[in-house]
């Protein structure tokens, strides 16, 4: 069944590419109200396409009023597989990053140019290419077979590039409409290329910003130096207290709930080889980190406390003899399975408060909450299905890996809708997403139009009940 | 002799005030080329006055070509006291700070307004008021007595507010013209008020700026966090290594050459009482610093290493999940007698280099050299003369104190011309120098016109040879 659909899609390649290019031509930049017309154009095109391919309930899901930056999501369903079959939510997003700096583009960002087998345009890789693969696969099934192997709910977000401000409320408001057994994401993942990897998890995140104060006002360092606390010295001492010489986090209670790495986790981490020397060389950096773990483990299975910004005092040209009274720092914590974001944030805050001496006051701000780490269980049907597809298409066992970064939708869908996600996108990490001259490979488009029919077919071999485990 | 001159100056008070106000009306802002006309106007007025009072060799000393910001100094001499009498350099400056922010002034900064016994104007306190007292005193002696008790060399700088960029070269170029036995400065000092203090020294200073690098470029904290050095963590660790918990400097070799405080130094430091509780309360700060020393000692007789600015990573609104590759810090070191600025700077630099781990590179910049601490020796004739004057005018022994800040001219005149300085200005610390609504007290003008005739008379009791000690 999937071969017929794949053959059909291969035959439609030209038409699918034309539709993808049409979608890319709409400058759907979600962060900037000046691009409202581009957002609207992309939505209209997608609504038309979803209706045209035979989905039902095609509509916009409007964001709740009053959330700045809120953008409607696009919904469409097909439920002809029947209640015994699983319902798969397919996730993608139609918004893109801004194209600045424009002067670095070799061709205009919203006029897709095909050069050397690559579509150069903003949004080609992130993520209109993979999103198109996903819904054109559904269209292929409906056209060739008159139906899909699974029930489908297509959900295309319009706020991914601005941090999904209204997504949690939007999901809450449409819990019944969005009910599904599992989620397949066109965003993220590493299905493309000769060494495919199953991304089966990602780290979580929480954040903290604080200001440190040592006096009511800055003072002249000649007048007070030697008898007044300097906010920058105190900030340095506090930040230095967070880690040991090898970068291990020293925050009491931060790792509460984190079990030691299992042999299975370590084996999975080793399944996608990493040339550590080349990895450090790419960044122009020296080896660093807890020697008890490999680089892959340090960056995906170990939590971090990271200062992203720190500042205070005089930072202009020349010098100023000031004893600063105030300093500031922005921190994010990457979390691993077992950590609660609020508890991790509280542990770091408590550490800072405990280490601040008398005469130093701290004021915290910035983002309560956070996102838990996500893991797709080893025995989850999504995982077996994707592994089977990759094994068949590529030969050999696919590597299993985790992202060091955070994909909030995975946790959000799990927490709000109780469904697990697999990232099965076709973008490759070298395609300059978020940067000038972003591109998407035509070979990835072709590969995706083979892989997606296979995975929907694979999932269609299962029953809905297979996803409903205790 | 000084009484007759003081009486004369008291009678001339109205005319002297008018001349001071005329000088203040010239906006002689040295840092901004837009005020060149104001600088020229102030110079012309002063040249006229010095010639009019009977000084010889009245002229501009032009700054060496090619030094940005260079401004001519004004020179005038009177040598009628004869070679047996000491030659006293009188120092002042005719340039002023910018008046910004203009909107905070209650009356225009260059239209002096007298309210409640205070002249409100930019430059009134710093330092046209005290400078006028100094040269009008010389004028008084010439008018009443036909001569001064000492030979006089008046030197009025035009670059004090911009850090005297060409002063060292200008002094070098005019060593013979500027030869003198001692220097009396109208800038600095605390002769005014009910509790006068002899400022007999100041701390020196040197500076250091450095950038720290951990990688060739910033990286995504999700991708690398846990396995890549963070420049902000490393900066924090380096800065934290400079001091212990109580603020003692931990830099090896930094205090080389600094003898333990003598009983005489400690007694002098105690001679001007300091209410430490009130002092900390003024800054809204908690007590801090090496408990082996009083606050007065910590701020005047102990050296410091002070971070004036520190920054790196993302410092804008919201957050950015970056692992920064670069961080920056600006440091100044306050120096005490016995410390060599270059050696102190080198010690701090060596400490930072020694404490930077492998994989962290440091790049240093900013201001080589520096200024040594200055001390007027206990048996220096300037000190005895000033003490005698204050004793007579105020009753009781004047306090002896040191500035925690740095007055580079004291060291410069000592190093280049071999002469020691006493700061004998009439400005008070509450007069908002460098700030909006700067003012100078009319009572300080009157007091200065009594004290300066007395100190020149006192110095006139000495022979030039008294200043030429081994």
Helix/strand/pairing category of chain A: alpha+beta
Task: Sum up the overall morphology of chain A in one term.
Answer: globular
Residue fraction in strands of chain A:
15-25%
How many helical elements of chain A?
14
Beta strand count of chain A? 18
Largest sheet of chain A: 6 strands, mixed
Largest interface (CB < 8 Å):
A-B, 82 and 80 residues
Q: Regarding CATH, which class of the largest domain in chain A?
A: Alpha Beta
CATH architecture of the largest domain in chain A: 3-Layer(aba) Sandwich
How would you name the oligomeric state of the polypeptide chains in this document?
Answer: homodimer
The name CATH uses for the topology of the largest domain in chain A is Aminopeptidase
Radius of gyration of chain A: 25 Å
Helix content of chain A: 25-40%
Quote the distance from N terminus to C terminus of chain A.
32 Å
Low-confidence stretches of chain A: none
Physical arrangement of strands within the biggest beta sheet of chain A: 1-2-6-3-7-17
The CATH superfamily of the largest domain in chain A turns out to be: Zn peptidases
Q: Report the average pLDDT across residues of chain A.
A: 94
Number of domains of chain A: 2
Pfam families (chains A, B): M20_dimer, Peptidase_M20
GO molecular function (chains A, B): metal ion binding; peptidase activity
InterPro entries (chains A, B): Cyt/Met_Dipeptidase, Peptidase_M20, Peptidase_M20_dimer
Keywords (chains A, B): Hydrolase, Metal-binding, Protease
């Amino acid at each position: 069944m999937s071969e017929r659909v794949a053959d059909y899609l291969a035959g439609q390649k030209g038409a699918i590419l034309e539709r993808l290019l049409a979608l890319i031509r709409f400058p759907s930049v979600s962060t900037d109200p000046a691009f409202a017309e581009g957002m609207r154009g992309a939505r209209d095109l997608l609504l038309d396409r979803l209706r045209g391919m035979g989905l039902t309930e095609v509509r916009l899901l409007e964001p709740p009023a009053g959330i700045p930056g809120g953008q409607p999501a696009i919904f469409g369903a097909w439920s002809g597989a029947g209640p015994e079959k699983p319902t798969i939510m397919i996730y993608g997003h139609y918004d893109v990053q801004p194209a600045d700096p424009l002067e670095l583009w070799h061709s205009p960002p919203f006029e897709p140019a095909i050069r050397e087998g690559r579509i150069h345009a903003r949004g080609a890789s992130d993520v209109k290419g993979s999103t198109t693969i996903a819904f054109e696969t559904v269209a292929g099934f409906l056209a060739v077979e008159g139906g899909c192997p699974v029930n489908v709910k297509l959900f295309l977000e319009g706020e991914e590039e601005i941090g999904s401000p209204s997504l949690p409320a939007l999901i809450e408001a449409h819990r019944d409409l969005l009910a599904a057994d599992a989620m397949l994401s066109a965003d993220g993942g590493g299905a493309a290329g000769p060494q495919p990897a199953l991304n089966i998890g990602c780290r979580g995140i929480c954040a903290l910003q604080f200001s440190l104060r040592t006096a009511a006002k800055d003072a002249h360092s000649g007048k007070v130096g030697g008898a007044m606390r300097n906010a920058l010295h105190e900030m340095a001492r506090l930040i230095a207290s967070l880690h040991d010489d090898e970068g291990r986090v020293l925050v009491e209670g931060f790792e509460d709930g984190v079990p030691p790495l299992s042999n299975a986790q370590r084996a999975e981490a080793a399944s996608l080889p990493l040339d550590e020397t080349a990895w450090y060389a790419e960044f122009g950096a020296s080896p660093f980190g807890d020697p008890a773990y490999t680089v892959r483990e340090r960056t995906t299975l170990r939590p971090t406390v990271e200062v992203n910004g720190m500042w205070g005092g005089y930072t202009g040209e020349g010098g100023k003899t000031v004893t600063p009274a105030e300093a500031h720092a922005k921190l994010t914590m990457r979390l691993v399975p077992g950590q609660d974001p609020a508890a991790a944030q509280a542990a770091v805050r408590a550490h800072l408060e405990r280490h601040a001496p008398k005469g130093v006051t701290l004021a915290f701000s910035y983002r309560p909450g956070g996102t838990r780490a996500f893991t797709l269980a080893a025995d989850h049907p999504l995982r077996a299905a994707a592994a089977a597809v990759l094994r068949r298409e590529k030969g050999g066992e696919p590597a299993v890996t985790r992202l060091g970064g955070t994909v909030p939708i995975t946790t959000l869908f799990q927490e709000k809708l109780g469904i697990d996600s697999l990232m099965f996108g076709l973008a490759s990490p070298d395609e300059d997403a978020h940067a000038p001259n972003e591109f998407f490979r035509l070979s990835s488009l072709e590969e995706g139009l083979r892989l997606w029919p296979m995975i929907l077919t694979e999932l269609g071999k299962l029953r809905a009940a297979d996803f409903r485990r205790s």
